[in-house]
Specification:
- Helix content is 27%, strand content 23%.
- It has 742 residues and is of the alpha+beta class.
- Among the domains are: 119 residues, no CATH class; 111 residues, Ubiquitin-like (UB roll) (Roll), CATH 3.10.20; 220 residues, no CATH class.
- The longest helix is centred in the N-terminal third of the chain and has 33 residues.
- This is Vancomycin resistance protein YoaR, contains peptidoglycan-binding and VanW domains.
Length: 742
């Protein structure tokens, strides 16, 4: 086949070897494939060979007489692979093709893979890959080309005759895929084999060592021999065995001494805890990039640890709840100025599981910087924000300056300290703090300052001129209405200016008015009694008490209380120090000996037919009183003992009392209803007096009196009919009065 273009000639082959020169057809002369024509020049020693007249000898040698020639073109990439050249202006050296000496009709083509020269790379615009469509270029029918190539008998004969030098089949997509899969499998197999070798080597080298990546309480021991790992742990952790363990429970952070708590470390057990070498390849590979904390194995003395945790909870961790509030401190050098401060709320908390807390400490005391213990908590109702809101908006303004209270002619002043004493705080229910004012501390601070602006009411009373009672008129009282006066205090106290309050007064009627006294029917004596034998300070105290009681009116249904009417018996009321007992014995006390007046009043009430509301006999019998009809006002330790009666008559009664020298008389005035008689029972149960040494001071020798039991019966008769109305019996036990030896 003749070439249509001139192509560069190949270098001449040696004279003693026939060469085959392959010419690439110019592009575009075939349907999409790279066509080639070939000449087989005759060997120098082949007889009778002639060259194909239509083929150019590009080798530059003269054809011999005999030429191995197979007519027809060879198409496709197979021959191009053999030549190692591509179409284009550049050509490369073609592998040598020789004639077998024993078979002259056989052409030997060297292996293309082993002898081919790297082909020249054509320009991009001159090369078109088969099977890839490009715009504007008509693509060849590759299937038709393959069919034509397969139907070329000359090419088939030539390739069959080539033997081992036959060119490889075309590189179709399927063959390329198979070749890629094969290469991938070879690479994968080689990689797996390499990994298996590395895995085995790593496993053998790590025998007897701690698994890689292991840490104990933050100390890296992975990859070490176990003995080395133990030594490393001892070196790193032994100083920490005596360091305090930080414990946090709720809102408390404290410390625990590991030595006194019985905490220790099992070194061998800790190393063993790391485990053996893992067999999983993935685990071993992963250990190069990660660490694994295994913790420590402790040698804990559990009784010591449990006791230490219990003591820690009781002394430090547990505490009651502190509700939010506000406190005050007095500022020194000022007139009652105070400074308000917030009482921060605090939850209640308690360690309830001591055993569980001990286990957690045992597990974490070396590895964790802080051991957290779970506690049972109860939150407060008031928040810190609620406390500060009340402090800033209400309390601090309230105690910033005094509050002036204007009375009738006199002013009272509430100092900041007085205001602080009256403030009360309670949870508001929404986390806030409620501020209240209790009026009683304010009243206590203001009452002495404003007392002279009040006027006490005076009850109507019966006075005795000679032997006849007359009514002394009552007077109204004017008192401070504290509720109305202090009602606007909260609003005034929170002002920055005009911190003033006016006093509001109220009129108070007396308990017994003049009209009521006249209508009570007090016009005759209904009961009277006199006792004697008083001397010295005892007589003085009895006279003072009689003066306080005389003229008292008891309305129908009311109860008269001697202690309630007179109040405490103090020196300011005129009482003096006297012997406790009216006979001059006993310790010295203020108001001593007034039991004689109490007995006299009791007997006057007794014969008036009024109802006994409570009295107490003397501890032993005094012969100056009727048996079973005495009453005392002082106990053996000097404390008061009350005596009372109830006016159960339809009319009122008045008390007239007076002392004269060594005697005291009490009369009950009213409207007489009964005739009263008294009957004394027999004495029994005698008990001789004990003998005692008298006190060092004010000792008076006494023979004493025996103790006994007796009774008294009061019999009431109707005045008009004389019939017995009722009979009242009371049993009395007197103890023995000691014989005193001075």
């Amino acid at each position: 086949m003749a070439d249509e273009h001139d192509w560069p000639e190949q270098d001449s082959e040696p004279a003693d070897q026939a060469a085959v020169t392959l010419h690439a057809q110019p592009p575009g002369t075939t349907d999409g494939l790279t066509p080639y024509s070939r000449d087989y020049p005759s060997a120098p020693d082949a007889p009778g060979g002639t060259a194909d007249p239509g083929t150019e000898n590009t080798a530059g040698t003269e054809a011999g007489p005999a030429t191995a020639h197979t007519p027809g073109p060879v198409h496709g990439p197979a021959l191009a692979d053999i030549r190692g050249e591509t179409s284009g202006p550049d050509t490369t050296r073609v592998p040598e093709v020789t004639v077998d000496p024993d078979h002259e009709d056989t052409v030997v083509i060297p292996d293309a893979v082993e002898t081919s020269v790297v082909p020249a790379i054509p320009d991009a615009d001159e090369m078109t890959a088969p099977g890839i469509e490009q715009p504007g270029i008509e693509q060849p029918d590759t299937e038709q080309a393959d069919t034509e190539q397969a139907d070329d008998p000359e090419l088939v004969d030539e390739l069959m005759a080539a033997g081992s030098g036959v060119a490889p089949p075309p590189a179709t997509p399927t063959r390329r895929l198979r070749r890629g899969v094969g290469v991938a499998l070879m690479i994968a197999g080689g990689t797996l084999a390499l990994l298996a070798v590395l895995y085995t080597a790593d496993l053998l080298l790590s025998v007897g060592r701690v698994p890689r990546g292991v840490t104990v309480a933050g100390v890296a021991v992975g990859g070490m021999k176990r003995a080395d790992a133990e030594q490393t742990l001892r070196r790193e952790l032994e100083p920490r065995l005596i360091e305090p363990v930080i414990i946090r429970g709720g809102d408390v952070t404290t410390q625990l001494d590991p030595v006194t708590a019985g905490l220790g470390l099992d070194w061998h057990g800790t190393v063993q805890r790391a485990g053996s070498q893992p067999l999983s390849p993935l685990t071993r590979l992963w250990s190069f990039f990660t660490t694994r904390e295994v913790g420590v194995v402790t040698s804990t003395r559990w009784p010591m640890l449990t006791r230490a945790v219990h003591e820690l909870a009781e002394s430090r961790l547990n505490h009651p709840m502190t509700e939010g509030g506000i406190g005050f401190t007095t500022i020194p050098g000022t007139d009652g100025e105070v400074s308000a401060f917030a009482i921060e709320p605090r939850q209640a908390q308690e360690l309830t599981d001591v055993e569980g807390a001990a286990r957690r400490i045992d597990e974490e005391w070396l590895g964790a910087p802080v051991v957290e213990l779970p506690l049972s908590t109860t939150p407060p109702k008031v928040t810190l924000a609620g406390v500060h809101a009340a402090l800033d908006r209400i309390v601090r303004p309230a105690v910033a300056e005094p509050v002036v209270v204007h009375g009738d002619g006199t002013d009272g002043v509430l100092r900041p300290r007085d205001v602080a004493n009256a403030l009360r705080f309670a949870p508001a229910g929404d986390g806030g703090l409620q501020v209240k004012v209790e009026q009683s501390p304010l009243r206590e601070a203001l009452a002495p300052q404003l007392a002279e602006t009040e006027r006490k009411g005076v009850n109507a009373k019966v006075v005795f001129t000679g032997d006849r009672p007359t009514v002394e008129p009552s007077t109204e009282g004017r008192v401070i209405d504290w509720a109305r006066t202090l009602a606007p205090f909260f609003e005034v106290a929170t002002r920055a200016e005009a911190r003033e309050l006016p006093v509001v007064y109220a009129t108070r009627q007396p308990e017994v008015t003049t009209e009521e006294a006249h209508a009570l029917g007090i016009h005759e004596v209904v009961g009277e009694f006199t006792t004697t034998g008083m001397v010295g300070e005892v007589a003085h105290n009895v006279a003072v008490l009689a003066e306080q009681v005389t003229g008292t009116i008891v309305r129908p249904g009311d109860t008269f209380s001697l202690d309630g009417h007179t109040g405490p018996r103090t020196a300011s009321q005129g009482y003096v120090v006297a012997p406790l007992h009216e006979d001059g014995t006993g310790p010295l006390v203020i108001g001593g000996g007034v039991g004689q007046f109490t007995t006299t009043l009791y007997n006057a009430m007794y014969f008036a037919g009024l109802k006994d509301a409570g009295h107490t006999e003397h501890p032993y019998y005094f012969d100056r009183y009727p048996v079973g009809r005495d009453a005392r006002s002082l106990d053996e330790d000097g404390s008061r003992v009350d005596m009372a009666f109830t006016n159960d008559a339809p009319t009122g009664v008045a008390i007239q009392a007076f002392a004269d020298g060594g005697s005291v008389t009490v009369r009950i005035w009213g409207t007489k209803r009964y005739r009263v008689e008294s009957a004394t029972g027999e004495r029994s149960g005698f008990e001789p007096p004990p003998v005692r040494r008298g006190p060092p001071d004010n000792c008076r020798p006494s023979l004493g009196t025996p103790g006994f039991t007796t009774s008294d019966t009061r019999v009431l008769y109707d005045l008009e009919s004389g019939a017995e109305v009722r009979r009242e019996t009371r049993s009395v036990r007197y103890g023995p009065k000691p014989m005193l030896v001075c």
